[in-house]
Input
Amino acid sequence: MQHKQMAQWQKNMYALWIGNFVTGAGASMSLPFLPLFISQMGHYPKWELTLYAGLAFSVTFLSQAVVSPLWGKLADRTGRKPMLLRAAVGMTITATLTGFSTNVWILIGLRLIQGAFSGYVNNAYALIASEVPMEQSGKTMGTLTTGSVGGQLIGPIIGGYIAGLFGFRIPFFIFGLLMLIASVVTGLFVKEDFVPADPRKAGAKASAFAGIKHVRIVWAMIVSSMLIQGATTSINPIISLFVKELMHAQGNIALASGVIAALPGIATLIAAPRLGALGDRIGPQRVLVAGLIFCGCVFLPMFFVTTVMMLGILRFLVGISDAALLPVTQTVMTLNTPQEAVSRIFSYNQSAQAIGSVIGPMLASGVAGVLDYRYVFLMTTGLVLINLAVVVWAYRTDPVASVN
Output
């Protein structure tokens, strides 16, 4: 019986890996050249273009931050599979409609609606976290991460190539098609034996944090997720504009931006399962702290880059630090959260990540508009240092959790 149960969670993981992959590919397909798409919709000065680019990127995550806890609560009552289908179908419709945008405000509005229906990857994490054996959680979360990261790696390159040939609208239609594939794969191949918590039990109505032994650690992971996401997404509104500046407006800027956006994914793809397994052996705390220190050491030199090649090498190294960060925070939460609260905790984490994805790009848009694109990397380094301080403080004040 145990063997059969193991086989089913593994089947779920493979199906959700495919779902994560196409979600990551579709969502990232249009992001590197979003500012270039917006610049075709009107003649905007630099400050206005960076503001609209920041808004168009951030509003998706703003609505996601607001609705995620509501979806998480519902998931703890109905199961994670209905939430996966809701996200996949919702994004199929909104992504396709975005391709028909005629002005910047329609684009921003549709991305706002898309955020309210998103959350596929986070629900995939929550479903697997509720099923995976504890001793394999680090490796499994790392493997699941390679799905969305692999998609994020290939998406910008394909999107940049297609946009260069056929225009900026086509990648949105492909995003819609990919989410349709995610809907079908999830509907047919993900099986969930979900038993809702008994509403009469104290734990079902209590706060999601009620049964957590190391509350400070879990909160630190949620804050850490927000800051990691803020740091890694801060470059998104300005990446194509910075690449254009480095290339002196010569050549296929959309494709070059896609490659630069995708490079961290290559490193994360290689490193995430290995660092997850390493966390299972030596403890996720050490991997997380080392990842944050390395992250700061990589972001700082970006301030000084003068060529696309230098930017690309440093972006690749960022991918290694990413592999040591988000999957590890997911693992720590999995180890410290009781079954009946796992969807709610993961939804709070998704909200935190979404808030990071709002704060990072909006701060970056402001910094780039007032100072220059390269000052964004100094701001990002600051976010990483704050993150390191939060994690070290949490483990110092709650030392028992460091043995998990």
Notes: Residues 46-78 form the longest helix (33 residues). The radius of gyration is 20 Å. The CA atoms of residues 87 and 118 lie 5 Å apart.
